[in-house]
Amino acid sequence: MRVLGLETSCDETAAAIYDGDLGLRAHVLHSQAAMHAEYGGVVPELAARDHVGRIHALVTAALAQAGLRTDQLDGIAYTAGPGLIGALLVGGAFAAGLSAALRAPLIAVHHLEGHLLAPMLEPRRPEFPFVALLVSGGHTMLARVDGVGRYEILGETLDDAAGEAFDKTAKALGLPYPGGPELAKLAENGRSGIYKFSRPMTDRPGLEFSFSGLKTAVLTALPTAQDAQAKADLARGFEEAVTDTLAIKCERALDATGLRCLVVAGGVGANKRLRARLAAATEKRGAELYFPRPEFCTDNAAMIAYAGWARISAGETASGLPTRARWPLQELRAPGALPTTAPEPPC
Ligand code: KG4
Ligand code: ZN
What we know:
This protein is an alpha/beta fold. It has 2 domains: about 1-115 and about 295-330, ATPase, nucleotide binding domain (Nucleotidyltransferase, domain 5, 2-Layer Sandwich); about 125-290, ATPase, nucleotide binding domain (Nucleotidyltransferase, domain 5). Helix content is about 40%, strand content about 20%. It has helices at about 35, 45-65, 85-100, 110-115, 160-170, 180-185, 210-220, 230-255, 270-285, 295, 300-315; strands at about 1-5, 10-20, 25-30, 75-80, 105-110, 130-135, 140-145, 150-155, 260-265, 290. A hairpin with a 4-residue loop joins strand 1 (about 1-5) and strand 2. The radius of gyration is 20 Å and the shape is globular. Zinc ion (ZN) binds near residues 111, 115 and 299.
Protein backbone atom coordinates (compact mmCIF):
# COMPACT_ATOMS: atom_id res chain seq x y z
CA MET A 1 0.00 0.00 0.00
CA ARG A 2 1.34 3.41 -1.03
CA VAL A 3 0.20 6.58 0.67
CA LEU A 4 0.87 10.15 -0.45
CA GLY A 5 1.30 12.57 2.47
CA LEU A 6 0.92 16.36 2.28
CA GLU A 7 2.07 18.87 4.89
CA THR A 8 1.07 22.56 4.71
CA SER A 9 0.28 23.48 8.33
CA CYS A 10 2.76 26.35 8.63
CA ASP A 11 5.67 27.52 6.50
CA GLU A 12 6.80 24.27 4.85
CA THR A 13 5.15 22.84 1.74
CA ALA A 14 5.96 19.14 1.61
CA ALA A 15 4.93 15.92 -0.14
CA ALA A 16 6.07 12.35 0.51
CA ILE A 17 5.16 8.79 -0.41
CA TYR A 18 5.28 5.92 2.09
CA ASP A 19 5.08 2.32 0.90
CA GLY A 20 4.15 -0.41 3.40
CA ASP A 21 6.62 -2.86 1.81
CA LEU A 22 9.43 -0.59 0.68
CA GLY A 23 9.29 2.19 3.30
CA LEU A 24 9.72 5.85 2.39
CA ARG A 25 9.84 6.14 -1.41
CA ALA A 26 9.98 9.93 -1.77
CA HIS A 27 10.02 13.09 0.23
CA VAL A 28 10.33 16.66 -1.03
CA LEU A 29 9.98 19.95 0.81
CA HIS A 30 10.06 23.67 0.21
CA SER A 31 10.76 25.92 3.21
CA GLN A 32 9.30 29.44 3.17
CA ALA A 33 11.72 30.56 5.94
CA ALA A 34 13.57 33.01 3.68
CA MET A 35 10.29 34.62 2.57
CA HIS A 36 9.12 35.18 6.15
CA ALA A 37 12.56 36.21 7.49
CA GLU A 38 12.12 39.91 6.69
CA TYR A 39 8.97 39.96 8.86
CA GLY A 40 10.66 38.16 11.77
CA GLY A 41 7.99 35.44 11.81
CA VAL A 42 5.45 33.57 9.68
CA VAL A 43 2.89 35.78 7.90
CA PRO A 44 -0.17 33.49 7.56
CA GLU A 45 -1.59 34.97 4.34
CA LEU A 46 1.78 34.83 2.57
CA ALA A 47 2.25 31.25 3.78
CA ALA A 48 -1.11 30.14 2.33
CA ARG A 49 -0.49 31.84 -1.04
CA ASP A 50 2.95 30.30 -1.34
CA HIS A 51 1.58 26.80 -0.60
CA VAL A 52 -0.96 27.29 -3.43
CA GLY A 53 1.83 28.09 -5.90
CA ARG A 54 4.02 25.15 -4.94
CA ILE A 55 1.97 22.15 -3.92
CA HIS A 56 1.27 20.76 -7.38
CA ALA A 57 4.94 20.86 -8.42
CA LEU A 58 5.98 19.21 -5.14
CA VAL A 59 3.49 16.36 -5.54
CA THR A 60 4.71 15.86 -9.11
CA ALA A 61 8.31 15.83 -7.86
CA ALA A 62 7.49 13.26 -5.15
CA LEU A 63 5.81 10.98 -7.71
CA ALA A 64 8.83 11.31 -10.02
CA GLN A 65 11.23 10.54 -7.15
CA ALA A 66 9.24 7.38 -6.34
CA GLY A 67 8.80 6.47 -10.03
CA LEU A 68 5.02 6.24 -9.54
CA ARG A 69 1.87 7.51 -11.25
CA THR A 70 -1.06 8.96 -9.34
CA ASP A 71 -3.18 5.87 -10.09
CA GLN A 72 -0.64 3.78 -8.16
CA LEU A 73 -1.46 5.60 -4.92
CA ASP A 74 -3.71 3.77 -2.43
CA GLY A 75 -4.44 6.66 -0.09
CA ILE A 76 -4.01 10.41 0.36
CA ALA A 77 -3.08 11.72 3.82
CA TYR A 78 -2.86 15.39 4.71
CA THR A 79 -2.24 17.49 7.78
CA ALA A 80 -5.75 18.55 8.85
CA GLY A 81 -4.60 20.52 11.89
CA PRO A 82 -3.58 22.11 14.14
CA GLY A 83 -1.96 24.97 12.24
CA LEU A 84 -2.64 28.13 10.24
CA ILE A 85 -6.10 27.71 8.77
CA GLY A 86 -5.37 29.24 5.35
CA ALA A 87 -2.23 27.14 5.02
CA LEU A 88 -3.98 23.94 6.14
CA LEU A 89 -6.80 24.48 3.64
CA VAL A 90 -4.35 24.38 0.72
CA GLY A 91 -3.12 20.86 1.56
CA GLY A 92 -6.63 19.78 2.57
CA ALA A 93 -8.24 20.95 -0.67
CA PHE A 94 -5.48 19.46 -2.83
CA ALA A 95 -5.72 16.14 -0.99
CA ALA A 96 -9.52 16.08 -1.22
CA GLY A 97 -9.42 16.75 -4.98
CA LEU A 98 -6.82 14.06 -5.62
CA SER A 99 -8.63 11.54 -3.43
CA ALA A 100 -11.92 12.16 -5.26
CA ALA A 101 -10.26 11.84 -8.67
CA LEU A 102 -8.45 8.62 -7.74
CA ARG A 103 -11.25 7.22 -5.54
CA ALA A 104 -8.54 6.67 -2.92
CA PRO A 105 -9.23 7.06 0.82
CA LEU A 106 -8.68 10.54 2.23
CA ILE A 107 -7.00 10.46 5.66
CA ALA A 108 -6.93 13.52 7.95
CA VAL A 109 -3.73 13.46 10.00
CA HIS A 110 -3.16 15.35 13.25
CA HIS A 111 0.13 17.24 12.87
CA LEU A 112 1.32 16.17 16.32
CA GLU A 113 0.55 12.53 15.56
CA GLY A 114 2.84 12.96 12.57
CA HIS A 115 5.62 14.22 14.85
CA LEU A 116 4.99 11.47 17.44
CA LEU A 117 5.25 8.72 14.81
CA ALA A 118 8.22 10.25 12.91
CA PRO A 119 10.76 7.95 14.68
CA MET A 120 9.02 5.05 12.89
CA LEU A 121 10.63 6.28 9.66
CA GLU A 122 14.07 5.26 10.96
CA PRO A 123 15.67 1.82 10.59
CA ARG A 124 15.88 1.56 14.42
CA ARG A 125 12.28 2.01 15.58
CA PRO A 126 10.76 2.24 19.05
CA GLU A 127 8.13 -0.25 20.17
CA PHE A 128 4.86 0.77 21.84
CA PRO A 129 4.36 1.78 24.62
CA PHE A 130 6.83 4.65 24.98
CA VAL A 131 7.16 8.10 26.52
CA ALA A 132 7.38 10.88 23.92
CA LEU A 133 8.76 14.36 24.40
CA LEU A 134 7.22 16.55 21.72
CA VAL A 135 9.04 19.87 21.46
CA SER A 136 8.18 22.16 18.57
CA GLY A 137 7.54 25.83 17.86
CA GLY A 138 3.90 25.54 18.93
CA HIS A 139 3.90 22.68 21.45
CA THR A 140 5.84 21.25 24.34
CA MET A 141 4.42 18.11 25.89
CA LEU A 142 5.20 14.75 27.37
CA ALA A 143 2.87 11.96 26.27
CA ARG A 144 2.47 8.26 26.86
CA VAL A 145 2.08 6.58 23.47
CA ASP A 146 0.36 3.16 23.52
CA GLY A 147 -0.26 2.87 19.79
CA VAL A 148 -1.42 4.80 16.74
CA GLY A 149 -4.06 7.27 17.94
CA ARG A 150 -3.60 6.20 21.59
CA TYR A 151 -1.96 9.13 23.33
CA GLU A 152 -2.17 10.20 26.97
CA ILE A 153 -0.81 13.67 27.72
CA LEU A 154 1.36 13.53 30.85
CA GLY A 155 2.31 17.21 30.96
CA GLU A 156 2.28 20.32 28.78
CA THR A 157 3.68 23.83 28.80
CA LEU A 158 1.63 26.35 30.72
CA ASP A 159 2.83 29.22 28.51
CA ASP A 160 5.50 29.33 25.78
CA ALA A 161 6.54 26.24 23.84
CA ALA A 162 10.27 25.40 24.00
CA GLY A 163 10.75 26.30 20.32
CA GLU A 164 8.88 29.57 20.84
CA ALA A 165 11.23 30.40 23.75
CA PHE A 166 14.22 29.62 21.49
CA ASP A 167 12.79 31.81 18.71
CA LYS A 168 11.89 34.77 20.97
CA THR A 169 15.26 34.67 22.78
CA ALA A 170 17.07 34.47 19.45
CA LYS A 171 15.14 37.53 18.22
CA ALA A 172 16.14 39.44 21.38
CA LEU A 173 19.78 38.50 20.69
CA GLY A 174 19.41 39.99 17.19
CA LEU A 175 19.61 36.65 15.39
CA PRO A 176 17.75 36.09 12.10
CA TYR A 177 14.51 34.09 11.81
CA PRO A 178 14.04 31.16 12.36
CA GLY A 179 15.91 31.70 15.60
CA GLY A 180 16.15 28.24 17.24
CA PRO A 181 18.91 26.78 15.06
CA GLU A 182 20.72 30.17 14.96
CA LEU A 183 20.72 30.41 18.76
CA ALA A 184 22.03 26.83 18.98
CA LYS A 185 24.86 27.77 16.59
CA LEU A 186 25.76 30.85 18.67
CA ALA A 187 25.67 28.79 21.89
CA GLU A 188 28.37 26.49 20.50
CA ASN A 189 30.88 29.35 21.01
CA GLY A 190 29.50 30.16 24.46
CA ARG A 191 31.04 29.13 27.78
CA SER A 192 29.10 27.10 30.30
CA GLY A 193 28.37 28.66 33.70
CA ILE A 194 28.90 32.35 32.84
CA TYR A 195 25.13 32.95 32.77
CA LYS A 196 23.15 30.71 35.10
CA PHE A 197 19.36 30.49 34.80
CA SER A 198 17.03 28.47 36.98
CA ARG A 199 15.38 25.34 35.56
CA PRO A 200 11.69 26.35 35.57
CA MET A 201 9.23 24.15 37.49
CA THR A 202 11.79 21.48 38.37
CA ASP A 203 11.64 22.43 42.08
CA ARG A 204 8.13 20.96 42.44
CA PRO A 205 6.57 17.66 41.43
CA GLY A 206 4.75 17.29 38.12
CA LEU A 207 5.41 17.14 34.39
CA GLU A 208 4.26 20.62 33.38
CA PHE A 209 6.62 23.12 31.74
CA SER A 210 6.88 26.91 31.72
CA PHE A 211 9.36 28.82 29.59
CA SER A 212 8.14 32.42 29.59
CA GLY A 213 9.96 33.28 32.85
CA LEU A 214 13.23 31.97 31.45
CA LYS A 215 12.79 34.11 28.34
CA THR A 216 12.22 37.16 30.60
CA ALA A 217 15.32 36.29 32.67
CA VAL A 218 17.39 36.29 29.47
CA LEU A 219 15.91 39.65 28.42
CA THR A 220 16.82 41.08 31.83
CA ALA A 221 20.41 39.80 31.51
CA LEU A 222 20.74 41.02 27.90
CA PRO A 223 22.15 44.53 28.66
CA THR A 224 25.14 42.86 30.39
CA ALA A 225 25.98 40.93 27.21
CA GLN A 226 27.77 43.62 25.23
CA ASP A 227 30.24 41.80 23.01
CA ALA A 228 30.00 38.72 20.78
CA GLN A 229 31.52 36.39 23.39
CA ALA A 230 29.09 37.53 26.10
CA LYS A 231 26.14 37.03 23.73
CA ALA A 232 27.37 33.50 22.99
CA ASP A 233 27.73 32.85 26.75
CA LEU A 234 24.16 34.07 27.26
CA ALA A 235 22.87 31.84 24.46
CA ARG A 236 24.73 28.90 26.03
CA GLY A 237 23.21 29.62 29.47
CA PHE A 238 19.72 29.77 27.96
CA GLU A 239 20.17 26.60 25.90
CA GLU A 240 21.51 24.69 28.90
CA ALA A 241 18.57 25.79 31.05
CA VAL A 242 15.98 24.68 28.44
CA THR A 243 17.63 21.37 27.59
CA ASP A 244 18.29 20.54 31.25
CA THR A 245 14.68 21.30 32.17
CA LEU A 246 13.36 19.13 29.34
CA ALA A 247 15.68 16.29 30.34
CA ILE A 248 14.70 16.44 34.04
CA LYS A 249 11.02 16.17 33.10
CA CYS A 250 11.71 13.28 30.70
CA GLU A 251 13.44 11.36 33.50
CA ARG A 252 10.45 12.03 35.75
CA ALA A 253 8.04 10.82 33.07
CA LEU A 254 10.01 7.57 32.67
CA ASP A 255 9.87 7.08 36.44
CA ALA A 256 6.16 7.93 36.68
CA THR A 257 5.12 5.54 33.88
CA GLY A 258 7.66 2.81 34.60
CA LEU A 259 8.44 2.76 30.84
CA ARG A 260 11.99 2.35 29.59
CA CYS A 261 11.73 3.91 26.15
CA LEU A 262 11.90 7.62 25.35
CA VAL A 263 11.14 9.14 21.96
CA VAL A 264 11.91 12.75 21.09
CA ALA A 265 10.06 14.51 18.29
CA GLY A 266 9.43 18.02 16.95
CA GLY A 267 11.73 20.78 15.71
CA VAL A 268 13.62 21.34 18.98
CA GLY A 269 14.46 17.62 18.87
CA ALA A 270 17.05 18.64 16.25
CA ASN A 271 18.98 20.47 19.00
CA LYS A 272 22.34 18.77 19.53
CA ARG A 273 22.68 19.70 23.21
CA LEU A 274 19.22 18.27 23.96
CA ARG A 275 20.09 15.07 22.12
CA ALA A 276 23.36 14.69 24.03
CA ARG A 277 21.74 15.51 27.38
CA LEU A 278 18.96 12.96 26.84
CA ALA A 279 21.42 10.33 25.59
CA ALA A 280 23.37 10.65 28.86
CA ALA A 281 20.19 10.61 31.00
CA THR A 282 18.70 7.51 29.35
CA GLU A 283 22.02 5.65 29.31
CA LYS A 284 22.40 6.24 33.05
CA ARG A 285 19.05 4.60 33.76
CA GLY A 286 19.31 1.84 31.16
CA ALA A 287 16.48 3.25 29.04
CA GLU A 288 16.28 3.35 25.24
CA LEU A 289 16.31 6.67 23.37
CA TYR A 290 14.94 7.24 19.87
CA PHE A 291 15.09 10.31 17.64
CA PRO A 292 13.98 10.90 14.10
CA ARG A 293 16.86 12.20 11.93
CA PRO A 294 16.99 16.03 12.22
CA GLU A 295 15.13 16.64 8.91
CA PHE A 296 12.21 14.53 10.23
CA CYS A 297 12.22 16.41 13.58
CA THR A 298 11.15 19.63 11.85
CA ASP A 299 7.99 19.78 9.73
CA ASN A 300 7.93 17.35 6.81
CA ALA A 301 5.48 15.22 4.83
CA ALA A 302 7.22 11.88 5.41
CA MET A 303 5.74 11.73 8.91
CA ILE A 304 2.28 12.56 7.52
CA ALA A 305 2.52 9.88 4.82
CA TYR A 306 3.61 7.36 7.49
CA ALA A 307 0.80 8.33 9.89
CA GLY A 308 -1.73 8.05 7.03
CA TRP A 309 -0.35 4.64 6.06
CA ALA A 310 -0.47 3.48 9.72
CA ARG A 311 -4.10 4.59 10.02
CA ILE A 312 -5.21 2.91 6.78
CA SER A 313 -3.32 -0.24 7.80
CA ALA A 314 -5.18 -0.22 11.14
CA GLY A 315 -8.55 -0.14 9.38
CA GLU A 316 -9.31 3.53 8.85
CA THR A 317 -11.17 3.92 5.57
CA ALA A 318 -11.67 7.66 5.19
CA SER A 319 -11.56 10.30 7.89
CA GLY A 320 -11.99 13.46 5.78
CA LEU A 321 -12.40 15.71 8.81
CA PRO A 322 -12.72 19.40 8.23
CA THR A 323 -9.45 21.25 8.48
CA ARG A 324 -8.98 22.52 12.04
CA ALA A 325 -6.77 25.39 13.20
CA ARG A 326 -7.16 24.17 16.78
CA TRP A 327 -7.33 20.44 17.41
CA PRO A 328 -6.41 19.20 20.89
CA LEU A 329 -4.48 15.91 20.72
CA GLN A 330 -6.85 14.52 23.39
CA GLU A 331 -9.66 14.59 20.79
CA LEU A 332 -7.76 12.37 18.41
CA ARG A 333 -9.17 8.86 18.08
CA ALA A 334 -7.55 5.52 17.35
CA PRO A 335 -7.93 4.46 13.69
CA GLY A 336 -11.48 3.51 12.83
CA ALA A 337 -12.91 4.59 16.22
CA LEU A 338 -16.14 6.56 16.06
CA PRO A 339 -16.14 10.27 16.96
CA THR A 340 -17.02 11.01 20.57
CA THR A 341 -17.58 14.72 19.95
CA ALA A 342 -18.98 16.59 16.96
CA PRO A 343 -16.19 18.01 14.79
CA GLU A 344 -15.70 21.78 14.81
CA PRO A 345 -16.85 23.79 11.79
CA PRO A 346 -14.03 24.32 9.25
CA CYS A 347 -12.74 27.73 10.51
O1 KG4 B 1 8.26 21.00 14.50
P1 KG4 B 1 8.62 22.30 13.89
O2 KG4 B 1 9.39 22.29 12.58
O3 KG4 B 1 7.37 23.18 13.63
C1 KG4 B 1 6.29 23.23 14.49
O4 KG4 B 1 5.39 22.36 14.33
O5 KG4 B 1 6.32 24.12 15.36
O6 KG4 B 1 9.45 23.12 15.00
C2 KG4 B 1 9.99 24.38 14.74
C3 KG4 B 1 10.68 24.86 16.00
C4 KG4 B 1 11.10 26.33 15.87
O7 KG4 B 1 10.74 26.99 17.06
C5 KG4 B 1 12.62 26.23 15.72
O8 KG4 B 1 13.29 27.37 16.17
C6 KG4 B 1 12.92 25.01 16.56
O9 KG4 B 1 11.88 24.10 16.26
N1 KG4 B 1 14.24 24.41 16.22
C7 KG4 B 1 15.28 24.38 17.07
C8 KG4 B 1 16.35 23.76 16.37
N2 KG4 B 1 15.90 23.44 15.11
C9 KG4 B 1 14.60 23.84 15.05
N3 KG4 B 1 15.40 24.81 18.34
C10 KG4 B 1 16.60 24.62 18.94
N4 KG4 B 1 17.67 24.05 18.33
C11 KG4 B 1 17.59 23.60 17.05
N5 KG4 B 1 18.65 23.02 16.47
ZN1 ZN C 1 5.53 20.67 13.55
